[in-house]
Specification:
Number of domains: 3
CATH architecture of the largest domain: 3-Layer(aba) Sandwich
Number of strands: 12
Strand content: 5-15%
Helix content: 25-40%
Radius of gyration: 25 Å
CATH topology of the largest domain: Rossmann fold
Largest sheet: 5 strands, mixed
Order of helices and strands: HHHEEEHHHEHEHHEEHEEHEHHEHHHE
CATH class of the largest domain: Alpha Beta
Length: 406
């Protein structure tokens, strides 16, 4: 669509007929196309002066060059975009982005959230194997058919460069690593903070806005952010006035953390609990992730235990041990499964869907109007453009009460 608009801009400036030459993808050029005096400011005169030679087939300009120049002039004020990324690096973008790659955990997910799947030209190898279980990959199976740009957690510079990206987005990286990759592939590399929906929500939102600006997806970035805020506000409005003495003690186990883990892997600041004002027994730890001891869990004795299905089998094995049989949640049959929270970092859509299920389990009267499966699909449609709850249910087990037969 962006190229189409660029060509339309050219047509308006040109004349009725343009030779629509098909040209191969070129390496990223560090200059504004058609900037005759190379001063990084494209004027109307410079743009008009390349049109007639192009129409006459003179010079070496291609239609992509003229189209990109028209876009830069019309939408960027004739100047390149100078971006300050999440690592405080200054990166210059000289032409509209058509070809992009996301590397490291979560980067491809954010591109999908921004409705930029048509710009993605390569993926890490894990997106073709175990990563296919992620909602964004389920919704967009075409991604796994793209060329591999190397292993997970960063790819391979040579394979990335071979795809000639206009820009690469890299989460969980450093200034030095980003600079090094940028030099190796000779294309802009944008370092991103992934953030979360807790105390680092501003970091997450900043990255969405930054990517939206670079990809000319500003409106979509605002839409995603507004939806998240509205959803969190809805959860808060349903549960904010529940008295503390009426809240059950809750715990979540099986949280993924650089791999799958069992019952004692938990999240002291588990966002779904925060959103519905649940009494998280682990909150006293005050850290982002924790491995606790069996003795600690027994001492906390939660009334309700939620199990992240990323570690479901490991948790089920743990719960067979005698020492857990006297837990109130086990004795009273208050065990519930939720969808994987961390799977190549945080699944934001899943996190919000989990919050509605947890809210309905803990305070059914506050969520009596909510069908949690339909709500999950609404959330997934907003984030990844497809209702994938049933796919997630088929893979992981979905929202359910767990019967241990005790």
């Amino acid at each position: 669509m962006k190229k189409v608009l660029s060509y339309l801009l050219v047509i308006l400036l040109l004349a009725p007929a343009l030779p629509l030459a098909i040209t191969p993808v070129a390496a990223y050029e560090k200059k504004i196309p058609c900037d005759a005096d190379a001063n990084n400011e494209l004027t109307k005169e410079e743009l008009v002066n390349v049109i007639l030679p192009y129409m006459l087939g003179e010079g070496d300009l291609k239609l992509d060059d003229v189209g990109d120049a028209a876009w830069v002039y019309a939408y960027w004020g004739g100047k390149p975009k100078i971006i300050t990324d999440s690592a405080a690096r200054e990166v210059t973008i000289y032409r509209p982005i058509e070809r992009t790659i996301g590397i490291e955990a979560g980067a491809l997910r954010l591109l999908v959230y921004l409705d930029a799947t048509d710009m993605v030209i390569g993926v890490e190898e894990n997106e073709k194997t175990w990563g296919t279980k992620n909602p964004y990959n389920i919704a967009h199976p075409e991604l796994r058919e793209l060329p591999s740009i190397g292993p997970f957690h960063g790819g391979n510079p040579e394979l990335i460069a071979a795809q000639t990206p206009d820009v690469v987005f890299w989460t969980y990286t450093t200034t030095g690593k980003a600079d090094d990759l940028q030099n190796k592939i000779d294309a802009p590399v944008i370092a991103l903070g992934y953030g979360d929906l807790g105390k680092n929500r501003a970091t997450f939102y900043h990255s969405l806005r930054l990517m939206g600006n670079i990809l000319d997806k500003d409106a979509r970035a605002r839409e995603v952010i507004q939806y998240i805020n509205d959803t969190i506000n809805d959860l808060d409005s349903r549960t904010a006035n529940i008295a503390e003495n009426k809240t059950l003690k809750v715990y979540v186990g099986g949280i993924g953390y650089y791999g799958a883990h069992g019952l004692l892997s938990t999240e002291p600041a588990y966002p779904p609990f925060l959103f519905v004002h649940a009494n998280n027994t682990a909150s006293e730890l005050g850290i982002e992730h924790a491995f606790i001891s069996a003795e600690t869990l027994i001492d906390w004795d939660p009334d309700v235990i939620f199990i992240d299905e990323g570690g479901y089998n490991l948790v089920m094995n743990d719960l067979e041990e005698d020492k857990y049989q006297d837990l109130s949640a086990v004795k009273n049959g208050k065990l519930y499964a939720v969808l994987p929270y961390n799977f190549y970092t945080t699944n934001y859509g899943t996190l919000l869907a989990n919050a509605y299920y947890i809210g309905k389990v803990l305070y059914p009267e506050k969520f009596e109007d909510v069908d949690v499966e339909q709500k999950a699909d609404e959330i997934y449609e907003q984030f990844v453009a497809k209702a994938v709850y049933q796919d997630m249910n088929n893979i992981f087990g979905g929202f359910k009460k767990i019967d241990l037969g005790v």
